[in-house]
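Hello support,

Our group uses your service weekly, and this is the first time we've seen a run hang past the timeout. The protein is G-protein coupled receptor 143. I'm not sure whether the cause is the sequence or the server load. Input pasted verbatim:
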Amino acid sequence: MASPRLETYCCPNQDAATQLVMSFQAEVFCGVCIGSSSISLLLTVLQLLPKKGQSTRKMPKASSSSTILLLISICDILGSLGIIFRSSVWLGFPGFIANISVVNGTSVWPSVFCVGSAMWIQLLYSAGFWWLFCYAVDSYLVVRRSAGLSTIVLYHMMTWGLAVMLCVEGITLLYYPSLSSCENGLEHAIPHYITTYAPLLLVLVVNPILFRRTVSAVASLLKGRQGIYTENERRLGTEIQIRFFKIMLVFVICWSSNIINESLLFYLEMQPDINETPLKNIRSAALITWIIMGVLNPMQGFLFTLAFYGWTGWRVDLKWRKREIPWESMSSSTVGENTYPSPVNYQNNIHDSKKIAATDSQQTDEAISMMSEGNTSSDDRLTRSSPIYQGW
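Update from on-call engineer: The timeout came from a worker crash unrelated to the input. Re-ran successfully.
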């Protein structure tokens, strides 16, 4: 799981709330993390592998949206590997882990492992949050025809730059003046928690707004493509809206427990004694959400692939081959053009207008196809109703 408490635990002078959750059934918690991460890792890889029976026609260059979806899955896979490694060391070498919180310990490696593994997990999941935000931005820009593969470089710079900058800044402030003598009190840890949860809250607040605007723009494109809004167009718009809803639903399910847990622990930290009897229910709620985090955080990778692509099946084709993307049939379609110059100027103007209209329709179809990527039935209906498919 991904929590700023992992970094806080590396300080020898830990706060009482961090000690409460980190010392509660540590073996059971690590086992839960290993099990959840392993299942998510295997199912995510299974989802991404090519399946038997898929089209083998040559695949053109992928869109920026499909690249972003793949990068989100990669971040989740690497984050799950980090959780498995950290939890395995925690279970396999209890003596090694016990030296983490020892002041003036003889070995620096326990602290190095503690900080390194926590930063690895936090950095990758934070990058996944930023990539998910970029996906919402890119979906809106694609429909507005303001994005493309060229923007993926900007997304890389923003995602990895912000993820690394916020992670380093939060860790630096947390371990000031040094790892062996972290400052006491809640104030010095607050910037670390802010830099950790900022991208998460950004996705929770901004992504639904961008998705809603994208759905509205898609509806306008569907209406303007042929001047009518048929049942197929209405159904396609609904499926795109459902796809965005599934993405946000998975995100809320996997990370709402983190927000609840952190709120409860902050409340406990502000109390003079967290072991008081009136706080028993709050302590129990914090420990329950802590275990839930260990289950749901790693499962994000697999659940996201279900939201992105649906269930792709068990029949894996280990023989590598290029797969057709949904809009290939539209992007490869060509509109017949007169190769002979017309002697009459107004005929040339009519011909150019038809070319522009066909190109505009093709761009519209491709943009809408990218929104519904992974849904075969939607792509088929879109292709059949496409003016290009009909030879317009």
